[in-house]
Amino acid sequence: MEGYYDALPPAGYVPVRIEISNGTDDKHGWQFRFHSTPSYQDKSSIDFLWPVEVEGRMEKSFEVLVPVATRLEGSHNYPMTSVHVDGYGLERRAAQYSATHRFSRRNQTSFTGLSPQLELHTKAPAVAYLDTMSREFTGCQIKPDWMSDDWRAYIGFSSILFTEEDWRQVGTPDRTAVLNWVAHGGRLVYFSVNPGPETLGNSGLPVVGHGESPYGLGTIEVKQWSGDSVNPETFARLLTKADLQNHAQDLAMDYSTGWALRDVVPSSKPNAVLLVFCVLAFAFVVGPVNLVVFAGKRRRHRLFITTPIISVVASLIMIGLIILEDGFGGTGARVATMLLMPDEHQVLHVQEQISRTGLLLGNRFSVGSETYMAQPVLDRTASAPRQRLSRYASMASGDWFGSRSYQAQYLSEVRPSRARVDRVDSPEDTVPVLFSTLEEDLVHVFYIDDQGEYWFADRLEVGRRTPMQSSSAITFNRDFWVKEVLEFGVRAGGNARLLQDRTGTMFGIMENPGDHFIATHSAIDWRQDRLLVVGPCRQIGGGGS
């Protein structure tokens, strides 16, 4: 068992390669119990269970994404992930995977991944220059032959820096995973000797030249490179640029206040009067009534029978009151952003949801094996709880959903799709004409053209050319941003504001979005679903029907 990184990221996942050789004739199973803590003092932790079976006389290799307990950037602590293995034929049952950075009073950079050439030739002088800035580097090396083809493996990184030569050694599936991480808001810095269109095209990067280009919700920066080391000052500036937090750490901070969905599904408040009455009633029955009526002076031995019976009856009454008050299952609300990426033939789906539950008869539910799922912090003043989370293949269980709980979940995934909205107006058209190939109609549609002009349509029907009407930025902010987008999630609102600065972009609300949401626990009654669709409009000339 070996980890891909030589330092633990401050959030997200760490990919671990597990190789098992079963030298017996029988099939055997093993269970790996991973335990992650952000520091020695912090009681919050994540437990992750991963079971596996291997047939007799077989050798198998697995890549396992192990969740890491989130710690804040800049905090000086010693996070650790440990593992205990139960199964056949083991000599060592325990191991640990710790962060390697030393204690320092300097402010740390955001967690950064470096390719081998940058690690070898540039890191040391850049770290020395950071020392003059009272900064400390945090990050690790990313080896081309030890990369994951799952984008979630990079969630803990704020930036990834690669040289052209190292990038050539990265396989196509791994390149796609890195680009999908960028689409979720990551930052890839690419050093090229000749950053021209042909060179970048051969690298598989969706950029056309030197500079910074948006990609999904993230950016790809192309830098001129001499083929050797990078200037320490320039490199240090790149490491400290904007002091970006990584995707997973943002989720630990953004949801404590100002989230509109908390008004849609408010937290439940315990009935204090009923609780006090039940406690007093139990104390009265188990005490005076029990001693006087059920077990008098000459029948004290009955206390061994009456006291347990009273306790059981009281518990059943309390359970009945809880069921009457909270019921079974739960209620919730969901919002999502769908970012169209027509050039890549895929969409990025970002979903935020909140729920209030009563009694749940089970905590298992199905979720996509490549779906990222996290629990945002709803109360930053409360101590972080110890979480027992389990995900195996397409099944999840544990503390993702709990009985009588007020919880939120953040989910995101990249889906293959040919959905797009194109601009199809002809030279004789006096206004932009949009054409949608989505599965559902959009309402309250705004379009920002390449000149920064705003256009509007009440409805954009699937498969029909829709002429737009002239609008303005003031109308967009008043009628769409304030009335529509602010009702969405924390991340969705930030994503929409980010994309508003890009010309040639369309915004709309999907009219019937239910089937497009990522399904989680079936016992939750989702009473509000709202889906924001955002994407570039490519000019393809006249067409449509």
Strand and helix map with partners:
Layout: E1 2-3, E2 13-22, E3 28-37, E4 45-54, E5 58-67, E6 80-87, E7 94-98, E8 107-108, E9 112-114, H1 116-121, H2 123-132, E10 135-136, E11 139-141, E12 159-163, H3 164-168, H4 172-183, E13 187-192, H5 197-203, E14 211-215, E15 218-224, H6 232-240, H7 247-251, H8 261-264, H9 272-294, H10 303-326, E16 330-341, E17 346-357, E18 365-366, E19 372-374, E20 386-392, E21 395-398, E22 406-416, E23 421-423, E24 433-436, E25 442-448, E26 454-460, E27 466-467, E28 469-470, H11 473-482, H12 490-500, E29 505-510, E30 524-539
Helix pairs in contact: 2-6, 9-10
Q: Any overview of this molecule?
A:
- With 545 residues, the protein is of the alpha+beta class.
- Among the domains are: 103 residues, Immunoglobulin-like (Sandwich); 219 residues, no CATH class.
- Helices cover 23% and strands 34% of the residues.
- The strands form five sheets. Strands 16, 17, 19, 22, 23, 24, 25, 26, 27, 28, 29 and 30 form a twelve-stranded mixed β-sheet that branches.
- α2 packs across α6 and α9 runs antiparallel to α10.
- The chain is globular, with a radius of gyration of 28 Å.
- The termini are far apart.
- The model has no long low-confidence stretch (mean pLDDT 85).
